Amino acid sequence: MMPQFSHYPIADIVFTLYLLVYFPFHGIRRGFSSKSPKPKLPVLQSYWRQARFVLLMLAAFMLVNWLGNHSATELGLALPPTTAGTWGLGIVAVLLATLHVWGKRAESKMTSEERAKQEYKLRELPFSMPRTRVEIVAYFITMVGMTTAWEVLFRGYLLLVLTPLTGLPMAVVFAAVAYGAGHGFENVKQFLGSIVAAFAFTVAYALTGSLWWLIVLHAAAPVTMFLAVGKLSKTKPIDAVAV
Asked: Rounded distance, CA 210 to CA 156, Å?
């Protein structure tokens, strides 16, 4: 017989519904509301705003995790990783090295106009890129913390809670759609792209049972963006004035 939600602590029920319902709804609503012009926040303030939200999410998760008595292994955080997870780490290392080589080759072939256009796109991202040492430290802490939190919450935690209720395939669908939709709606291409990427990560976790390699892969994205902006601008990403 299908397990019922009544078998879970109330904290698990509330937190799961928050991740599955409120989080994606809020992301989509934020996406539509952001179309109206708003004053841009200072860099450190924008990082703190994101970090504060993640810290609140993690605090709630830690309480829920304690009440539900969920282990690190159940959440995909076993050490050492599963055999499949270890292979995943190896694949990530090869992938990042390959992208680095490919990126350097592509960069060397760029014209000045292509370089300027690409730099403009990177600087138009929804978060500000750091320039000073303090901003760089804050950027790395915020982005690595965010990507790690999303992996634990939307992959490790949701699949742990949902799989006994819905079966693994539907748990993957619910978790992926919730996380993808939580990125907001700018246009159809962006929205579908977010959901497809979320499916890829969620399926990868379901197949390997380990989050560590996905955390590394996810955290590598903002790090790569930061390095790309610095290279494309042909200037050091740190201001000349020390902070």
From this structure: 8
The single residue listed with the structure tokens 């080759």 is: 105
Residue 206 falls in which region: left (phi positive, over 0), alpha (psi -120 to 50) or beta: alpha
Round to whole Å and give the CA distance between 58 and 72: 14
The residues, ordered by sequence, that sit 6+ positions from 7 with a Cβ below 8 Å of its Cβ are: none
Tokens read off for 50: 């994101």
- Tell me the per-residue pLDDT of 112-161, one tens digit each, with 9 for 90 and over: 777 667 666 666 665 677 888 898 899 999 999 999 999 999 999 999 99
- The residue behind tokens 């050492």 is 80
Using DSSP's 3-state secondary structure scheme, residue 79 falls into coil
Give the residue from 58, 64, 57, 74 showing the smallest Cα distance to 164: 74
Domain boundaries, the chain: 7-233
pLDDT at 40 over 50: yes
CB atoms within 10 A of CB 87: 14
Question: How many angstroms separate the CA atoms of 6 and 164, rounded?
Answer: 12
